[in-house]
Fold this protein.
Amino acid sequence: MKKSNNIKKILGKLGPLLALVVLTIILTIASSNFLTINNVMNILRQTAVNGLIASGMLVVLITAGIDLSVGANAVLCACVMGMLLDKLGIANPVILLGSCIIAGVGIGFVNGLLLTKLHLPHPFVSTLGMKNVLCGLALFIVSTKTISSFPNAITWLGSANIFKSGGFSGIPIAFLAMLLLFGCFHLLLNYTALGRAIYCVGGNPEATRLSGINTDNVLIFVYSLSGFVCAIAGIVIVGRSGVANPSSAISPYDTDAIAACIIGGASFMGGKGTIWGTLIGALIISVIRNGLTLLNAASDVQYMVIGFVIIAAVFIDVTRNRMEAKARRLAGK
Amino acid sequence: MSDYVVELKNVTKRFPGVVALRNMSLQIKQGEILGLVGENGAGKSTLIKVLTGVYLPDEGEIYVDGIKQNIKTPNDAKNAGIACVYQELNIVKLLSITDNIFINKLIRKKNSRLLDYNTMHKKAHEVMLSLGQDVDEKKPCGNFGMGILQMVEIAKAVLVDTKLIIMDEPTSSLGEKEVEQLMSTIRTLKARGVSILFVSHKLEELFEVCDRVTVMRDGEHILTNDIKNMNNEKLITAMVGRTLDNQYPKVAGKKGREALRVENLNSAGVLHDISFTAYHGEILGIAGLVGAGRTETCLAIFGAFPIDSGNLHIDGKKIVNKSPKDAVRNGIALLTEDRKGQGLVLSQGIDTNLALANLKKFSKGPWLNKGKIRETGNKNIEDFKIKTPGLKTIAGQLSGGNQQKVVIGKWINTDADIFLFDEPTRGIDVGAKVEVYHIMNRLVAEGKCVIMVSSELPEILGMSDRVIIMREGRIMGEIERESSKFSQEIIMKGAWGGKI
């Protein structure tokens, strides 16, 4: 009995990884171009932005919240740099990067304040509103222009590769930076008091508050952190495309990030999820996108497939919750 | 025709570990107002739920007009002519009075699917008027006070020809004037031949409005008598009258200096001038009926319930608890009454829960000290005999008693000096109860101050060194363990509004 439980547990944990492996095998068979070293590097490159945003989203989801403003925030952060460069002629990378990060964290901080101090009912509403505000703001500050010719120091994070040689495109710095950040998130979530508080706020905010923890501050931190990684993602976006394009603020960054987290084992109910699960989730989404492109599927098909994957992931989430509740009920008897 | 409108015959309802109703019988005549009283946990709520089809009785029968009923769902009860006005009203506040009254019996226009609001408004106005309420039935219910909303609930019952209306503590949330109106409405209903089962914690109301009264204790019928044959003393004696057994391992502590002094705590409508002192090395019991403001007092001390005025002193020093965080810093621990909702993070491990109230102690800088968490956690498990497969087991998988021990462990790990225990043994088995008492004894022996709220009188008497009695947000009196007044009868008297 116990053994089968353990197997179930391991399967539950490794489920996303298993899905990734199966997906890889299928695509390898379907397309000879899929499992080549350069295409794998390509997938990693494509994963970086979503992975970064998803890491912040994960922490928010753990507190049983949601942040729909992430994509718009990232693009706005990119446009902040574009505005400084284009309108004020500032090309100093320190100032540009600094302003970008201040903008991202500041917006996250406001999201946190809206939730905790204005007592808006659910972050869904406030961050959805924020998303629209930011979309407009991004267009406004660069006068709807697409800004290009960023200095190399800015585009480096999103475009550079290491170990480049001959036919090998190199390992994307953006992905490595993302991995480094994931390592930090792992430490934060598992080895710090704040990390425990984050999980507990998601599991039972009232019990956590009554344990003497300032849950408002925890939530404000979490949304600010989400804003921070959006700023980093914004820098990567600029590096990858070479431009700050305000109209890309409506791209589905938010749903991709949520999907990555949920596929990776996080739950809308909060209190659950790991950063490595999220990594797998982000990779699964990139692999699907990449594979479909290789198979000559147009973006319409891609949207639909990703959509179904999200629905399936949420369905798995609720089923999992129901099963856990049942197991708990049985254990309580 | 039977003599009784509704009759309950030998009903028994068991829950795991307890018998909530034991061979309970109850008869209600047509057009009478029957009072139902009993202390906390006497089985009144279960009785109501059996009558309204929320619970299925294990044994026994329910008769309406002498016909045996098979009430399995709330709908069956409604069809049988039994309605209930609960303490928590079932009103959709955004909808109008008319909508609420007709919510499950909408009237449609002839040969049409469209609603006939003209007729509904007219009927709603008529029925409200007949209950003494001249109100605009088109306005949303949220615009009205509790008194009117209660009338809306009663109107719902009246409209479907209800034979019996159960009122569960109907006056608990009403103002004086609203109570008067309710009483006159009850008399109107009675004159129309509707029977009423009136459950109340206020004896004076029973004497004012009831024809007969039934007393319950420990799920059993104790007596039913005409109200004119009863008085306060007789009712209270009937309600308590239970023998005290010796399951309480009380160890007398050494009463030390003052630990917590509460001065004139006020919270509009909930707490009125709460003042008391608790000492190191003693267990101070707080007795009272459910809703007397005991939990709110604890929460207010803990900074989790808003107060309008009042002072707290710990060890003679004035403190202010604006939030639970302040309270924890000031050495106060609160074991909440709602273990699952407010005490534990069920989805997290025992180790996390044990460390939660004092994460600082279990960290070095920002980093968790996992070694210390493991060490303390294992010691907690051993000390409090927490039965668990391991330290990382999810708290939600433990039994109630073991969960409670985890919550207690969480607070003991804070090194608090003052422990507020709100219903510390609710819903846990006898063995775990005794272990909780042992922990309380240990705390007192260490010179800590324990304040225990309990609805179980034997527990209050068994474990407390001193008892304060609350009623309707006020302190009614205080009794020392050595005093000759330290008895169930005196405490119940205070809790029901008598002089101590």
